[in-house]
Records
---
Amino acid sequence: MLKYFIFFFSILCSQNVIAIDSKIIVKDLERPLLVRFEPETNIMYIVQQTGKIFIKNEATTTLFLDWSEHITIKPMPDERGLLGMAFDPDYNNNGLFYISYVDTENYSVVSRFKVSDNKMKADINSEKKLFYFKQPFNNHNGGHLEFSPIDNYLYISFGDGGKFGDPFNHAQNTGNYFGKILRIDTNSEDGYNIPTDNPFYGSEYEKQEIWAYGLRNPWRFSFDAINGDMFIGDVGQDSWEEINYLKFDSAGLNFGWNIVEGNHCYSDPECDKRMYVDPMFEYPSDAAYWKSIMGIREKNITGCSVTGGYIYRGKKVKSLYGLYIFSDFCSGKIWAFDQNSNQITEITTSLLSSDQHMIASFGEDIYNELYIVDYLGAIYKIQKGK
């Protein structure tokens, strides 16, 4: 496995400056976490932590699904609520989509829904639960959903279950869903099938849906649109945030949590790291999460909660092509990482100026153009600068 460790943040020389900026697509939202784009039409859907999904179509915003009565949401933000959404690759024909959320009893749920006869409204009575299990705490829920562009399987992330330090050793235990990336085949009337090439397929003791494990809180992950390689933003504990990398056909990899955090032993300084997969990239977790939630700005910090992004494969910004774009929720900083040269460039000011931002997610439309989801209430589209 290739190793990429960069502990500095380089500034590009003037001749290599990335000429980019962004424009606001919609603002005045309430806790937006994600944007999705309807296959074929490219219509934007905005997922709010509050349990609502809106359709943004030109000058109008329409409520597509209101699931607020079924989720846990608090006045002071935590890591629960409506967390993920993904369209079935054949949505145009079958009208199916998937959401993940934490319900009112603190259960993690992944469900399938169907659009109603009115294409602007989900059928609220069509829910079919695929996963349903109790969360021990109120954080590290994961909850991201992505269909692979190569195999069309649904991949699902769950965190280690919360608190701190993974007290139940969930992430290293392949007998549960915590701290894992799952992989399922949704082409089934009964909900889903387990692909026969999953690493624990046919096992009596391991969860057969598991694709990768040893993760703390893989809040956002994505696929390279060209080759299906996976990039995982795994939120760190005390010291390190990390980006993990899996080639398309890599299965059963163990990223080491809670034995290691990033490329470092976590609790035992003499731990044996050889059996775990090193992160592609790591950076210091040096900000205070509670200050970010309270809106208190800190100086000279890198971040404290990585927001995984996408490899840019669009056509509008050639200078970003092939670079991995990601951010940190606490600092609001955005970076472009070149996997080939191991160079990283901060592009925050180019995109969003120096104002305060809390980047919850990035989004990718059907043309592989990228969007920024600011938890403070706005959606931006990345575009070429003047």
---
Amino acid sequence: MRVRAGPGPVLAVSAAIYVGAILLSGQAQYLLPENLVSVLGRAVALGLTAVGQTLAILVASIDLSVAALISASAVLASVVMDGDPAMVVPGVLAVLALGAVVGLVNGLLVAKARVNPLIATLGMALVIQGGLSAVVSNFAGAVPPAFQLLDQGSLLGVPAGLVLLLAVAAAASLMLNLTRFGSDVFAAGGNPEAARLAGIRTGRTVVGAHVLCSLCAALAGLYLAARLGSGAPWIGRDGVYDLESIAVAVIGGTVLAGGRGGVWGTLAGVAVFAMIDSLFNILGVDAFAKQVFRGVIIVAAVAAYAAGTRRLVA
């Protein structure tokens, strides 16, 4: 029996805590729609990364190179554009090409060379971060003001970055639910041997999932370059986008063993983290306590899902 994961309970409890704590603090203005949209807007980079990470996890893989790739993408975009509006398109294409190459190498290492995905992508992360740190030690290059509209602009009152995230999530969801590749992703992650016997080329599916994962991380790097106006070799690492993208996918119901989960659940997990960050900032709570609370939520979400799965299967 196939059990679909659901992020609803965790999201509902987190939202209730968020609303209750803000009301008790006497700062109800933070519940206004524009402020709530702003809270979600600040989680765009994590959301973009997590959408890609979800695809990798669905094929029973994982990608620890996304944080380093985000840093490299932001630096590459800033250096290529160098403040020149005419270089925006070449800069974006260069970053997407970098993402595609990194994803292709990761996928080939995992699917063809049979290297454990944790080791393969961690090694890739070290290669990227080491090379980046050897070349750049501080902010490098600059993006033109027009490109910064990706962060500062809006569409019908919705931040442009949030529009980008929703568009990427919608495209990924449609791909998973309506295309042959999407069904192959679930099959390859759920039961690789049965998928191979059914004629599915699981190796290509794993490679494709890793390429898409890296492209999403590259988009996150472009967004952060627009947000900061430049690129720096530490922005991906300091944002802990590798581990947090895995965490929000798990909170959203994507199973680490592969084959079960979805993009919208992952976005619900991103919303949970966004609310935690916002609430702790409003209340002035210590950053270390925030990490502890995040850890508790992750463990509780996985435990609740496991318990629900056992009841349904039984």
---
Amino acid sequence: DRCLVGALSNYDKLYGARSVPHGAARALKRDDRAAALNADAWMAANRNTGLLVMKGDRILVERYNYDRKESDRFQSFSMAKTVVAMLIGVALNDGKVKSIDQKAEEFLPELKGQLYGATSLRHLLTMSSGVAFREDYDGKDDISVLARKTLGRQGPGGADTVMGINTRLRPAGEKFYYASVETQVLGLVLRAAVGKTLAEYLAEKIWQPMGAEADATWLIDAGGYETGYMGLNATLRDWGRLGMLLANYGALDGRQLIPAAWVKAATTAEAPHLRVGVATRR
């Protein structure tokens, strides 16, 4: 426990990582509302390393705890899944992906004969593949195997990290079932589709155009493939800039970095099994 906070803001030192370089920083305005929002009392009462409250491009509150500071990079965990999904939308717009109804094996021939190879990008994006994947974090489940193959660098990395997951529970497109491996597959698809690493594509399409002020980092496996399901590390203010971009449906200063329709689709249930109150973790 005494090492936990330091580990969570230094994942890119504990594991292999690739830099996501920033460009010219986009300035953020400030309007201190910490007192009105009771921010200091909230930070004192909760075990949070950082708190950023923004309205538009204006910072209302910025606080750090447990010796963290503005230059620290904070681990995304599953927020990286949203970044991968947004980059899929950019790749569609770029013509690198023709349709989200394409199968993963069209980009990753190594997955032919595997259930995930025969799964469409649509069902990977909505975690509706119907493939069995246990994610209970008990050290013996499928997510633990995925972590060992990616972060733990067991095996060659890349497509090998998702091999052997070949039990079908139900037909694709029937039920939402949270499974990190589905975004891991998407990350591999994206890299094959655009011919660049995820870090390079993120830097080119989002990180630099949105005006990030610091380099981010993305964890990589033994083969140099980014961990699509987690592992993006960034400063709090740059997470804020990304949030601001998504809140504006992918637009910034009149420029559409992510297609607006794609951002809206990401927050709209396209099928009954994805609706609020119906889609559950299991």
---
Amino acid sequence: MIIDIHAHAYPERIAKKVKERMESVSGSQVENVGTPEALVDEMEKNGVDHSVFLPVATNTAQVGKLNAQAIRWMEEYGSRGLVSFAAVHPDTAELKMVMRGIRNSGLRGIKIHPDYQETYFDDIRYLRILDAAAEEGLLVLVHAGMDEVYPDHIHCDVKRILHVLEEMECSHLILAHMGGWQMWTDVKKYICGAPVFMDTAFSLTGTVSVENRGVYGKMLDDNQFTELVRLHGVDRVLFGSDTPWSSQKENLEWIQKCSLNPEEKTQILGENARKLLTLV
């Protein structure tokens, strides 16, 4: 079983605008049109059994709308392997009630993005979200490290991740981008071995060249990736592509060709996520 824990999709009416904006700001070539239909088509071409759709709320008014959309898409595309997470904003009111509703709706977890939500990861509001998610048995996937769109102000760096880990138990936490995009030296030193999960999204393949902002993103090579995986523990690493911002096909092929042994690749590409998401 192959599971992509980190995928994005947008309604058709805005997908083209999102694609154009991302390509303009980041210099990255977006791989597909970014709709849920395009996502499940991509999965079927690549032999991916499930992909997890991750919505992000940049204000509180978006939370209910995005979660209703996530439920609709899971109902419409679930038979083709789509799994939906929910959106929560740091300022979400009646947080426990919202989390209970997310769980009751069948959504498996939540996505938070400290940069887009302009809140530091160790802010008390995120700690409350993590605590409420744990109570409801929900996973939390957080953007970690730099974001190529907002490289000048990092809200979830290794220091803040460590502060959160000191404050609470986080076995339900998934750190995107191998623990912190473009911060892998510190991830290796301070995060590897911690009781959290990491995903591989936008860490192995992809192109970033934002010359006018001084951002040059270099992805992990085979040796760096293999070392991080084994230091952290292969049972806590999850395949993620960040599609459409990075090719699902290319990320899958990269892991299949890397130096990890076949058992390790099987765990990362699907077995770990299957257990985490309780999929059969």
